[in-house]
Amino acid sequence: MAEILDAEKVRKVAVLARLKLSDAEVADYVTKLGNVLKYVDTLNEVDTEGVEPMVHAVELSNVFRADEVQPSLPRAAALQNAPKTDGTFFLVPQILEDK
Amino acid sequence: MSIIGATTGELLSRLERGELTSVELTTAYLDRIAQQDDRVAAFLTVNGDEALQQAADVDRRRQAKQPLGALAGIPVAVKDVLCTKGLKTTCASRMLANFIPPYDAHVVTQLRNADAILIGKTNMDEFAMGSTTETSAFKTTRNPWDLGRTAGGSSGGSAAAVAAGMSPLALGTDTGGSIRQPAGFCSVVGMKPTYGRVSRFGMVAYGSSLDQIGPFANDVNGAALLAQVIAGHDCRDSTSVNAPVPAYSQTVNQPLAGLRVGIAKEHFVEGLNPEVEQALRAALQVYKSLGAEIKEVSLPHTSYGVAVYYLIAPSEASSNLARYDGVHYGHRAAQFSNMIDMYATSRGEGFGSEVKRRIMLGTYALSAGYYDAYYLKALKVRRLIRQDYDKAFEQIDVLASPASPNPPSKIGEYSANPLAMYLEDIYTIGANLAGLPGISVPAGFTEAGLPVGLQLLAAPFEEEKLLRAARMYEQATQWQGKRATL
Predict the structure, then answer these.
(1) Does residue B236 lie within any of the structural domains?
(2) What are the chain A neighbours of B339 within 8 Å (beta carbons)?
(3) Would you say residue B150 lies in a domain?
(4) CB A13 within 8 A of CB B360
(5) B461 — contact with chain A (CB < 8 Å)?
(6) DSSP B237
């Protein structure tokens, strides 16, 4: 750990996170996220040899229920908040090039 | 007797005796909102017309002597992170500025089944990320006790609404202290139930292994009743625990004999405000005078809680918030060059700076090469923190601490230094990491008149004990009767 966070790394993470950032935001994150990363490095002091990771407060696994058909949202309700729709589908920009 | 500032129990008995109708009651709270909320900014949406219709319906059914729910005719304000069918739910984000849910959150269904009145949706930190309600994209909620200070967060709107007498009850959510800290800052009661006690279905997710929905009220009895209404199993949230819900409101007034109150020596650290510490010491004296035993325990990993939280919560957030892609709902940018650019531009425009910061932090912590060092390490220390609590609760019934190390912050105090704000979560975060129930009750005021909250934690599913211990303290002190003057 204890890596220095630079602008290039911030931009790389922004691509992974699908966030378009302004130059000012990138600069801001270099400092503010850098400070947080420095702070969380204190966890290195803790000996965690042989400790199982705790992913959840209630450690359930495989909660099963019967596979039965239940009522679900009507199409119109599912589409009602879509930024773009033709009334049947969600519409997105073209993703394949024209031949 | 005035309606504004009355407890839930007082209001219910006046409704039952026929001294008051729900329409009169709801009108009084709507008037209060109209008079005061331009200064407090607790509400994002006021649901006036529907609230009055619901109230009239309850009054009609009461007159016809039909059976009514446990909160019949009582207004409840709901944090804007909880989906309300047909009523805008924004998460205080531009991303969801126009989002109208096609369904109710489970807890909202429970409120409707209990015949509660849905009076409005409250302001919050954007996507519940923040401790001051300043990251809201729409407005900053102000503390009813001092309008120059924050109401805390992220459920600041719900806490301020109850403190300002704009609703007797409210719902909030708590991922790292977001119910207990604003409750302390606003001198109201706020409880985070055990993880799994309340279904999260229809709650917009932030940190899914930490998030829990809970009540705000102006007294412990009100919180007990609201907790009872929202708790219980729901198969739509697979982490919701299938265990019977005790009748908290029936037992809350019974004092606990032989109560063991713990304090953690690691909680008395540099950064704890002396007046806050004094209030805690005074609260311990109150418990002593009630016959409780005060025991010192050790939580050796306390100082790592904030670091663990600020890796786990952002990691979960970066995954949860991937759903905002400008396709199914939420903001879509007007201009973009291709599909991927549409995602990135929509998200860049729709999210505010604190949300983007946490998505970035989480994405970084989960990315190849860093996962083991950050995320996995945090999960291991999380278990050590849980084990500390398990050991402590072998010796004690409840753990007492301040809700926050300092009184409410001034508006803008943390804008340049988010890390300083994160460090203020030291007392509340452990309950989320370990999944424990916790409550904050009013515990007095600083010399400047700023509220101080007493936090009590208990072992998992010990809400009944927690509420009874909190009620013992409330009954023995005068803080519950104090109301902010606006």
Answers:
(1) yes
(2) 92-93, 95
(3) yes
(4) yes
(5) no
(6) S
Interface list for B 99-138 with A (CB within 8 A): 99-100, 102-103
CB-based contact B155:B375 (threshold 8 Å): no
Q: Which range (A60-69, A85-94, B185-194) has the least confidence?
A: A60-69
Number of domains observed in the structure of chain B: 1
Structural tokens at position B81: 């992170």
Integer Cα distance of B261 and B449 in angstroms: 27
CB B362 within 8 A of CB B319: yes
Six token digits for residue B177: 């202290």
Q: Nearest 5 degrees, angle CA B84-CA A18-CA B131?
A: 50
The pLDDT of residue A52: 96
The residue segments making up the domain with residue B51 are 8-254+471-481
User: In this structure, are residues B295 and B396 in contact, taking their beta carbons and an 8 Å threshold?
Assistant: yes
Q: DSSP character for B87?
A: B
Domain containing B202 — which CATH number?
Answer: 3.90.1300.10
Question: Residue B371 domain-assigned?
Answer: no
Summarised one tens digit per residue, pLDDT across range B374-395 is 999 999 999 999 999 999 999 9
Q: Which domains does chain A have, with CATH numbers?
A: 7-44 (1.10.20)
Residue A59 pLDDT level (bands cut at 50, 70, 90): confident
Task: List, as ranges, residues 303-332 from B with C-beta within 8 Å of A.
Answer: 303-304, 306-308, 310-311, 318, 322, 325-332
pLDDT more than 90, % of chain A = 72
Contacts of B455 (CB under 8 A, 6+ apart): B180, B184, B400, B401, B402, B403, B427, B428, B438, B439, B440
Q: Is the pTM of the predicted complex or chain greater than 0.80? A: yes
Average pLDDT score over residue span B230-234:
97
Task: Answer whether residue B115 is part of any domain.
Answer: yes
Query: Would you say residue B46 has pLDDT above 80?
Result: yes
Residue B476 to chain A, least CA–CA distance (Å) = 34
